[in-house]
Each structure stands twice: as structure tokens, then as C-alpha cells.
Amino acid sequence: MTERAVVREQLDRSLSTVSLFALSFGTIIGVGWITVLGSWLSDAGALGAIIAFVVGGLIMLPIALCYAEIAGMYPVSGGEVAYVYQIYGERMSFMAGWLLAYMYIAVTSFEAVAVGWVLSAMFPGIEGPVIYSFLGSDVTLWTLLIGIGLTALIAAINFFGAKSTSSFQLLFVGILVLASLVFVVAGLSRAEPEYLQPLFVGDTFNAATIGVLAVVATTPFWFGGFDTIPQAMGEVSKDVDLGKIARVMVGSILISLIFYVAIILTASVSVERTTLLGFDLPIAGAAGAVFDGGFMRQVVLFAGLCGLLTTWNAMFYAGTRVMFSLGRARMIPHGFAHIHPVHGSPSRAVIFVGVVGGLGALMGRQAIDLISGSSALVFALLFALVTFGVLRLRDSQPDHPRPYRFPGGKPGLWLASAFSGLVLLIAAVAPLLSSGGAIPTEWLLLAGWALLGLIFYVAAKPMRAEISAEEQRYLILNED
After folding, report:
1. What band does 395 get if pLDDT is binned at 50, 70 and 90?
2. Is the dihedral of CA 345, 349, 351, 354 positive or negative?
């Protein structure tokens, strides 16, 4: 590497494969099984929801393996910012990175709203007085303050660096797994199979299929947590074998798939369907039925709270790394690449994600479906860009070192690309169908975020003019 005038900011390399698995698995599991289980069952039925998650999980596997190949080729922070830059160029890289930042920050807002929902189920009456309504749902004082307060706590954990983030993640992933396992074992031991009816929603095959596809359309969001690993590649310890990244990604998806299926099945056989869907949080109602209320119901809800915190922490972490990478590349103001001199964290990116994510906490519960739908669309778009891109790199960069290679050669990559294209089609069409032909709110939300990104991109133009194309490539990819 020739000596350069431009300085490439580098974060500490301290993460292990265990840390990467905790980031990925903890993000995938999250809190959806607590807050959105009712939507899955009402849209698709018990068996329909299980089939939707199996289909979604299996589609994700080849996509994850594509990510594993390109992450090994370019082990830098920012994930898709680097990959799309190499394959499609600067402007597409910025678009991918900015949309990715939206998705990560939006999920932190999702968690800020969901935490009050979970806590109100654990401690009825904690909500406080209604202070306003948003999208047709009431926003209450104490749940809002809790959401903002925990956003500040997650920001503080990330401010102290990757080691702090990793330790937090490992602790709460462990608690989540143990508490959830108790619920599944107890629930299946008392299963009432007749409660599974109806297996699908709708009186016809077409109606049932539409219900299943409605859930499949959101699965990129529920399985997309493996994407936190590419954001962390610039901080992976030098002792880690990059060829094993694929195992971490695939393992986190498969174990998460088993988790989702077990939770859907356990809840569905624990309480009669009408009663189950009548609960504010169906999983809490199912836990109450399994354990006759009381302490163990609280344990299950605490598991959901742990899942919420692990997703919140990992998505916050990933969002800061995307903003850091965009700043380092001068696609947004360079100040976002500032590294704290003591803690080694991208401190200004942390503050930005914390503030914007905290503003999202002002939204009510109705925003949860909006966030999951728009984020699923972003995930699907990025999956398509990356999988098709890995295929292109086999031709344009045949000799580039690949610690891991996607199995099956080009035919396998074409299959993965077809899967990602299918996911993108479903994720784009589903909001249109739900909106009755009107412009989906998800599209409008993404358009507003894109406009903000354009402002940031234009503001950074003088900074980009100070570096050459070769220097920008070095900043993004850490190579000539």
C-alpha cells in the first residue's frame, strides 16, 4: 500500500465468531414473536404462518451464503456500502448505504415503541396518561419516556465501544434462549391439537395463498439480522477464520427458524384461536394459559424483553457502522467517521442514530407494521443487489481472494439471485395490495428518507472533491 495523505479511520478489531453469532441470532429473534405473532396468525393461520417462515428461512440461506462470500472478500465495516461500491459504483453505494441506515434506525424506533407494549403486559397500568395519538393509536407518557430512556441507554452502551456492545449481546441472548425454552417445553407438553384450526386463513386455496404470502413478504425483516455481521467485519479479530463466516450466518438463520416455528406452534396449541387473537399480546395470553398465569408468564415476557434488547442493541450498532462508513467515504459529512479517542467508537454516528431513533419513539404502535413493511422492502432490495453482484464479481474479479466460495458455482448463484428477486417482488407488491391500489405509506416513508439523504449527499460534495477516486476506493475497501 502506497503512503497516502488521506487518513482511513479504523475501528478496534476485537470481535470473535461467538460475538458475531450473538449479534446475528439476537437480531433475528428480536421481539416480533411477542408483538406481531397475532398478525402472523390472523393473516395466515397456524400452519400457514409456519409454512411462511420455513419458506422465508430457506430462501434466506442462499442469500446469506452470497453475503458470506463477499464479506470474506471485503472484510470492512459498512457491509453493503463497500459491496455495492465495488460492484455498481459510488452513487448506488450511497443509495444502498442510506437505505440501510434507514432500516437500522427505523428498527431502533420499532424497539422503542415495542418496549412499552411488552412492559405494559408485564406491569399493567405502567403506561401513564394518554398525551396524543399517532396513526390511530394512543401514545402514553410513561411508555414514551421508557422508550426514549432505553434508547439513551443503548446509545451509551454503543458509545463505549464494540466490546461493551458484544458483552451486552451475549448476556441477553443467553437469557432469551433459556426463558423461551421453558415456555416451549411446557407448552408442547400440554398441547391441544384442535386449537390449531383453522390451519390456514381463507375459504379457498387462493385466499390461503395470499395470507401465507403476506407473512412471507415480511420474512426478510424477521430473518434479516444476519446482515449485522457484514457491518461488523471491520472489527473482527485478526485471529478469526473468515472462511467460517458462512457457518455463523447459516447457523443463526437455521436456529432462528427452529425458534420461530416452535413459538408459533406452542402458542397455537396452547389457547383456542379466537381467544388467542383476542389478547393484546397473544404470546402473553398463551404463556398465561400454559402456566396458569403468575410468575412463569412474566418469565416468558421477560424473554421477549431480552429479545427486544438484543435486536435493539445489534441494530443500533449496525446503524452506527453504516453511518461511519458513509462518512469515511465522504458520501455524507466526514464528521460521522469521527472515532472517540478513548472508547474507539464512532461517537458522532452513535449520537446521530440515538437522536433519530429516539424521535421514532414518538410514534405509536400502529407504526410497528409500517416499519416492518418498509424495512422488509429495503432488506429485499439490498439482498437482490448483493446476490446479483456476487454473480457479477465471479466474472469481473475471478482472481480476488475468497476465503469462502458459494457452493454450486454460477448455477447456485443464479438460484440465489432468483430467490432474492422473488423476495424483492413480494416485498414490493405486498404493501400495494394492502393499500388497495393507493400509494403505500411505506413507499412515501422511504421517499422522505431518500430526500433527506440527498441533502446529506450534496452537503458532502466539497469533501468528496478533496479526495481522488483512488483514495475513496481505499477508504471504502481498504485496498488499491
Report:
1. very high
2. negative
* Cα-to-chain-centroid distance, residue 252: 13
Candidates 85, 26, 156, 7; CA nearest to 322 is: 85
User: 3-state DSSP call for residue 329?
Assistant: coil
Of residues 22 and 4, more confidence is placed in: 22
Helix extents (H) in 279-366:
282-291, 295-328, 347-360
Residue 433 neighbours by CB under 8 Å, 6+ apart: 210
- The CA distance from 464 to 329, in Å, is 8
- Report phi then psi at 274, rounded to 5: -60, -45
Tell me how far apart the alpha carbons of residues 56 and 50 are, in angstroms, rounded to a whole number. Answer: 10
pLDDT digits (tens, 9 = 90+) for 175-189: 888 888 888 888 888
| Residue 211 near residue 48 (C-beta atoms within 8 A) | yes
Give the pTM: 0.85
Rounded to the nearest angstrom, the gap between the alpha carbon of residue 454 and the centroid of all alpha carbons in its chain is 24
Residue 245 C-alpha cell reads as 463466516
Residue with grid cell 386449537, as numbered in its chain: 195
| pLDDT value of residue 1 | 42
What are the grid coordinates assigned to 310, written together? Answer: 438484543
Rounded-to-integer distance, Cα 252 and Cα 78, Å:
20
Determine how many CB atoms are found less than 10 A away from the CB of residue 243: 13
Q: What is the rounded CA–CA span in Å between residue 106 and residue 368? A: 9
- Model confidence at 351, pLDDT cuts 50, 70, 90, reads very high
